Amino acid sequence: MTQQTPIRRVALTLAADGVPVLPLRAGKLPFGNCPACVDNACGGRPNMKSPGPCTCPHPCHGWAAATTDPHTLSSPAWARAWRDAAAVAYHPGGAGLTVVDLDNADAIAWARRTLSATRTVPTTRGEHWIYRGTMPSSNAVRPGVDIKSLMQYARWLGNGTGATAALPAAVRALTVKEPTPARRAPQSLTVPLRGGQGQCRHRTPAYLERGIAMAVQRITEARSAIHHTVYRTFLAVLSRHGGCGCLTDAHVARLFAAAQAKGESARHCTDAWTNARTALGM
């Protein structure tokens, strides 16, 4: 029988409640890649370095290793990791949550003045304010404040107190930054129109609208290989709609917004869009 350490019991309880978990080593660090997965030689997981997937039985891919699968959590490789673990971490975005990590008293005071009340968990240096909803993660959005949601893990420190409120616009706004003049050009959403003379071959705007809506849905519903899904979706949209002049900046902005909601950066969106256009000779 697998030993039920206190840390593993907490992890299994969280997983049963739908919270993806992973073990942490001392120092709040995830377990390093096993020999087969060093430098993502295995193909990686849906993380920022490679699109995955990976079938490695070890919990060695950071936040992307987080899972709710009881069979994985109870496997021999994970059982050994739980015995060596110093703490439990979870993937907030995978649980539909965002953690505002407040590192000091000044940050807490700012949050009390600025943000709506929500579930609060004490930490070693400050507090975690936990909201319902997801967004891109970002560190140092202001002094002493980090955002942990999509593509990030947070240490589990208990349920805390208070009711979990919906993610407010004030938190989302923390990661919105004006591009510098030097970066405006490469992040432009303008689509060079090819042809575009006369009546669109699609005959009706409803066809394009349905295509954009389906593309947004495909990105939104992706559970893995986010980079790959975004690129392939951009490629499909450009292949079908990019040559007749019907795409507008508003359409492209919707695709970018869907991708960024899954954790993609503006730069990665621009790169994927540019690569898709290049592949199609646009």
Walk me through the structure:
This protein is of the alpha+beta class. Helix content is about 35%, strand content about 15%. It is built from 10 helices and 10 strands. It has helices at about 5-15, 70-75, 75-85, 105-115, 170, 180-185, 205-220, 225-240, 250-260, 265-280; strands at about 20-25, 30, 85-90, 95-100, 120, 125-130, 140, 145-150, 155, 165. The strands form 2 sheets. Strands 4, 5, 6, 7, 8 and 10 form a 6-stranded mixed sheet that branches. A 4-stranded antiparallel sheet has the order 2-1-3-9. Strand 1 and strand 2 form a beta hairpin. Helix 7 (about 205-220) runs parallel beside helix 9. The longest helix has 16 residues, at about 205-220. The model is unreliable at about 45-50 and about 180-200 (pLDDT under 50).
- What is the overall number of helices? 10
Shape: globular
The overall average pLDDT, rounded, is 82
Backbone CA Rg:
21 Å
N to C succession of SSEs: HEEHHEEHEEEEEEHHHHHH
% residues in beta strands:
5-15%
Count the strands?
10
The end-to-end distance, rounded to whole angstroms, is 60 Å
Q: Which regions are unreliable across 5 or more consecutive residues at pLDDT < 50?
A: 46-51, 179-199
Sheet of most strands: 6 strands, mixed
Helix content: 25-40%
Give the class from helix and strand content and strand pairing.
alpha+beta
Helix-strand blueprint:
Elements: H1 6-16, E1 21-25, E2 29-30, H2 70-73, H3 76-84, E3 87-90, E4 97-102, H4 105-114, E5 119-122, E6 127-132, E7 138-142, E8 145-148, E9 154-155, E10 165-166, H5 169-172, H6 181-184, H7 205-220, H8 226-241, H9 249-261, H10 266-279
Parallel strand pairs: 6-10
Antiparallel strand pairs: 1-2, 1-3, 3-9, 4-6, 4-8, 5-6, 7-8
